[in-house]
Amino acid sequence: MSHHKQWLFAILISTVQLALMLMVVLWLFSQYGDTANRVIRRQIAVSNHAFASQSALQIHSMDLNNIRSGSKDWNRLQSLVEKTKFPNRGYLAVLDAKTGKFLCHPEIKENPEIRNQFWYFGIKPTTDSPDNGEPSTSVLHDPQVSFVLNTDSGTSIVNGCYLEKIDAIVLVCQQQSFAMAMNAVMTQPLSQVGFALTLIIGLIGTSLSMVTLRRFESNVDKKERELERRVAARSAELITTKGAVIFGLARLAESRDNDTGEHLDRIRKYVSILAKHLATAHPEIDDEFISNLGLASSLHDIGKVGIPDAILLKPGQLDPTERSIMELHTIIGGECLEAISNRLGESDFLQMACQVAYWHHERWDGAGYPHGLSEQQIPIVARIVAVADVYDALTSRRPYKQPISHKKSRVIITAGSGSQFDPEVVNAFLAHEDEFEAISLQHQYLDDEQLTCQILKHTTRLSELSQVES
Known about the structure:
The chain is α+β, with helices and mostly antiparallel strands. The protein contains 15 helices and six strands. The protein folds into two domains: 182 residues, PAS domain (Beta-Lactamase); 235 residues, Orthogonal Bundle (Hypothetical protein af1432), CATH 1.10.3210. Strand 5 and strand 6 form a beta hairpin. The longest helix has 80 residues. The protein starts with a helix and ends with a helix.
């Protein structure tokens, strides 16, 4: 037998032993409780009968003749019933032996319906009963009456004496709940011992299981930790690689527009600030959402790879035809990312990137492009990138313009709230405009001399590639 099988067999034997011990303890406790309950009920019955006999003598001495309801003798008897008190919520009552209905009861004046209820159906004799489940009236005529009475108010233990003179039964009723309370008091020491014994058995079993399982789990835990470490490292590597590749592709597209990559860095920071601010009002914006949006924002102009250099690098303003061609970069980028998404399957990141590429030039009032979406039709990610992209365009150098100050950019964006931009996103921008200004100043574009060198560098490289191809 292998080492593992030996331990499994030991656990099985120990479990069976512990289960048997617990069953024995529970059985002993149950037997003791049943015995105690019978003893208590017997004691209550004896006490009830003694009270009933004493009350019967007292009623006999009253020399009653007519105990019809409302008569003088009935009032005397009812007064005695109401005044007689017994401990433990017991009470005295008088039952008509012929009809099985109450003649006198402590609550009969408050609830006259008591005298009209047929109590045979609530009686369970302590002696043998007929096959139909109902008690025989002869039981009520016995010198000593003993039965259990089930009523809406609960179950009572009833004992009494038959009064032949008035053909009635003097009853003393004790609530069964009192017997249960006494039983609880008597069995409490045993229950404490049983609980302690059960606890000890449980601790022994638990300790044995822990010692045994630790032997098996020790090696498993080590292997799982090593596997988790490798998976985490691999996942981190894949995430880093994905981010680097995506950013590299985006930067490649931006490089055709004489950008050195700072634009993408700034956009990513801007959208992250705006998204964090909007998270309180948009439950879908969480840490993963913000991370994906930061990366997806770098692909917002990926479609520029399909725009001719003559238009993309034109130093002056574009004419209407050129402008319509430039606007195609949203369609080119969106369709490109959509094709990748269809090939790879569903991906929150790619879906977000498609939305950004397609619709970051849409306007809140519906006058944007490429599809003329308006307000909530525009995905929240595109509305966020729209504000970030325009702010960076205003505060950055372009071939056809000089950068403008943060103060003037703020005025332009605020003026576009409700027309070009989502007012909610503009409010988020205004709440963090100091951060925007700091980022803008920290990542300045190259000066004129550096920018010229950069353009010459790209032009030379393109020339070399053309010569190689020819």
